[in-house]
Each structure stands twice: as structure tokens, then as C-alpha cells.
Fold this sequence. Notes:
- The complex is a heterodimer.
- Chain A is mostly beta strands.
- Chain A contains no helices and eleven strands.
- In chain A, strands 2, 4, 5, 6, 9, 10 and 11 form a seven-stranded mixed β-sheet that branches. Chain A has a four-stranded antiparallel β-sheet with strand order 1-3-8-7, with no helix packed on it.
- Chain B is mainly beta.
- Chain B is built from no helices and eleven strands.
- In chain B, strands 2, 4, 5, 9, 10 and 11 form a six-stranded mixed β-sheet that branches.
- The radius of gyration of chain B is 13 Å and the shape is globular.
- The termini of chain B are far apart.
- Chain A binds chain B through residues 4, 33, 35, 42-45, 48, 55-56, 58, 90, 92, 98-99, 101-108, and chain B through 32, 34, 36, 41-46, 49, 89, 91, 93, 95-104.
Amino acid sequence: xxxxxxxxxxxxxxxxxxxxxxxxxxxxxxxxxxxxxxxxxxxxxxxxxxxxxxxxxxxxxxxxxxxxxxxxxxxxxxxxxxxxxxxxxxxxxxxxxxxxxxxxxxxxxxxxxx
Amino acid sequence: xxxxxxxxxxxxxxxxxxxxxxxxxxxxxxxxxxxxxxxxxxxxxxxxxxxxxxxxxxxxxxxxxxxxxxxxxxxxxxxxxxxxxxxxxxxxxxxxxxxxxxxxxxxxxxx
Lengths: 114, 111
């Protein structure tokens, strides 16, 4: 069974631009979560989707948004990029709703904002 | 606010020794506590979790201990191997809420 796939793996953007990251969960998994990982802040929760509905949201500005499609694939968008948005963005999927603890992570998308 | 922290940012052990990685948490309402392992260039990988109504859970070569009195979580790795070298994160999660991760402990296994 294929794992969680995130595309692209690496991305370089300029301040002020917007970016869309994609996540394909493991087949059959309906829950997708997004995290931002930086050396200074560690792993910070962004949002969680289950069956196309946002279940939880972290403490990030409105520039960060996401959505989930009917096939469980998810995208996150960051508008008006800032230098501080440079990070590894991780997506995780799990087969159940938010009560399940085991999440399967992708390799992440490394975003660099210049 | 809620926070999950680890006692030491780095830990170095000799191959074959046992490793103990510690974590302190502050949210008493958490229902699950989870340990993840992240190797260089990869996403975190689930190791083991424990429910808040338990104090010990064992997996393959790993044991998680939960002390709710002092809000302390630990991960014990038996017979540590070079392949165990990674960053280890603890996380806490309420039943219907988001996971909150600690800062991570880098485990280095010396041959």
C-alpha cells in the first residue's frame, strides 16, 4: 500500500507570492492533518480534515488555509508568503476520525521563501 | 496554555545500552500520549501511544511510561541500535482535538 504522498518535495517562492501544497493520503484514510515544522518552533498543528470537513484548526493566521476533496486528497494554501513561512510542511493521514492516534506522515514539502 | 516539552534536546548512548527519553506535559485533559520518531529527511513515524488511564505500555523493544501525578511521559528503548538514531517527539492529544508536539530529543547511538 502506498504511503502518504506530498507534492512537491521542494519549493522556492518569493515573498508576497502564494503557494499550494498537495497531500494524497493512504488509500482508505479519511482523516488528513497538516503540520508546520521549523527548527525554532518544532511541529505546529495547522488543521485537520475528515470527510471534507475541517475538524480542528491551529493558531495560524488566515493566510493559511486548506481543503479536502471527496477522494480524501487535501491541499493547503498559503497566501502572501512571508520569510517566516519557510518550513517543512507535513501531512499526515489516518483511517479513522480524530479519536485515532496513529497518524502516518508523508515526507513533507520543504518550502523556502526568499 | 498547553505545552508538551522534553527534558533534554540531545541524548547520546552506546549501542546495546538502553535509552530513556523523557517528556513533561501540562495538559491534564489529554486522552492520549504518543511517541514519534523522525529520521533525517523523513516525516515522523508513529512508535507507540498510551491512553491516559494506563501507566505503562510495551511494544517491540519500546516501553512508554506515563506518570500522571507529575505529568511525565517517558520512552524506553531497549538494546539501542544505530538505526534508532533519530529525533523523538512526544505528543499529547485529547479525544477529539489536535495533537500538540514537544520540541524533540535527538538520539545519537554510538557504535
